[in-house]
């Protein structure tokens, strides 16, 4: 059964740069975002990835009003607006969160949220046979200055059966 997910902006931007937003539709039954994430991810319509995100959101994503509740205020003490709103919404919906920022992931886990990142989406897409290889997508992310640790890359490539070349 597919899961419901709330997304932060960074994973949407990364997947848009790869032209892979549709992978989310094969993994999740519903995608939710707060308004702050929509504004952050799709703000500059001069960027091709922002245009893709805007179109994808309008067709497939449920956008929620921003929160001002206690969870939001707690998260906002240490995270940016989009991450705080996304975590607050995921807590309210009691669902998984798509987030890559390290501190945001740690806080989500402390609040018992299931956390997935872009690498998890790519790995699941490969397992579902929606993509054939992950390595070129990782390389493209790195060329677009998406920060990924060597450790995470190695783990994902290993799980995908795409072992590092010596």
Explain what this protein looks like in three dimensions:
By secondary structure, the chain is an alpha/beta fold. Helices cover 56% and strands 13% of the residues. The protein has a single domain (3-119), classed as 3-Layer(aba) Sandwich (Rossmann fold). It is built from ten helices and five strands. Helix 1 runs parallel beside helix 3 (35-42), helix 3 (35-42) crosses helix 6 (81-93) and helix 5 runs antiparallel to helix 6 (81-93). The longest helix has 13 residues, at 48-60. The N and C termini lie far apart (38 Å). 43% of the residues are buried. The model has no long low-confidence stretch (mean pLDDT 93).
In short:
The chain is α/β, with parallel strands linked by helices and 166 residues long. It is built from ten helices and five strands.
């Amino acid at each position: 059964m597919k899961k419901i997910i709330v997304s932060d902006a960074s994973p949407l931007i990364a997947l848009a740069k790869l032209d892979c937003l549709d992978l989310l539709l094969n993994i999740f039954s519903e995608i939710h975002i707060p308004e702050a994430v929509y504004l952050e991810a799709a703000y500059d319509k001069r960027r091709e990835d922002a245009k893709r995100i805007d179109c994808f959101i309008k067709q497939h994503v449920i956008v929620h009003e921003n929160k001002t509740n206690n969870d939001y205020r707690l998260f906002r003490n240490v995270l940016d607006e989009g991450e705080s709103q996304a975590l607050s919404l995921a807590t309210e919906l009691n669902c998984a969160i798509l987030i890559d920022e390290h501190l945001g992931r740690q806080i989500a886990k402390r609040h018992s949220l299931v956390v997935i990142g872009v690498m998890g989406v790519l790995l699941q897409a490969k397992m579902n046979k929606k993509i054939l290889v992950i390595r070129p997508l990782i390389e493209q992310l790195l060329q677009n200055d998406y920060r990924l640790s060597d450790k995470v890359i190695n783990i994902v490539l290993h799980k995908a059966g795409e072992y590092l070349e010596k």
